Amino acid sequence: MERKGDYRRWLYRGGRPNWFARFQNRATAVAFAAGIMPRRAAALRIRGRRTGRVITFPVAIADYAGERYLVSMLGEDVNWVRNLRAADGHAVLKHGRTEAVRLEEVDVPDRAPILRRYVQVAPGARPHIPAGPQAPLADFERISPDYPVFRIRADPVLANTALPAVHQRAMLLNRHCRHGSGSDRDARVDG
After folding, report:
1. Which residue, 40, 77, 105, 174, shows the most beta carbons closer than 10 Å to its own?
2. For the chain, which domains are there?
3. Does pTM surpass 0.90?
4. Is the dihedral of CA 81, 118, 127, 59 positive or negative?
């Protein structure tokens, strides 16, 4: 079991995915988006804040108290969290079907039980979060400021629009990015 944790830490050494993790994430995101994999898995699409390029990557969805949540297993200092905040929480989840969502950040005092549930349902996150699935809630309260948690809501702006409009509005026209679509910087990995 320790070897699997070492492998997963190696994939994200320094808090960033290495080349193999990027390849693996792309392949997994395709499978999750197609709806092939577990129901708790999806592909998250967010517009990059600097390049304007749509970033797609796999996520595990934690359910708690009748709500769905996403957690940043690598903490605050990751691109998808910064991109999401720049996009005011607008994103797209795909698991067989496409869902325009608004991800609302959960306040730190409310994160602990959600973090515990996330560690229970997302085994890939366990090497990165220093509290185990059976750890007491106090352990999660101690680390909760370090791990952003987002509640998944239907996007009120995009809920009544057709699918092409969802993609156009949520993914193609992000007012926060500095470079328009087709920019020569689109070829670069978003940072």
Report:
1. 174
2. 2-179 (2.30.110.10)
3. no
4. negative
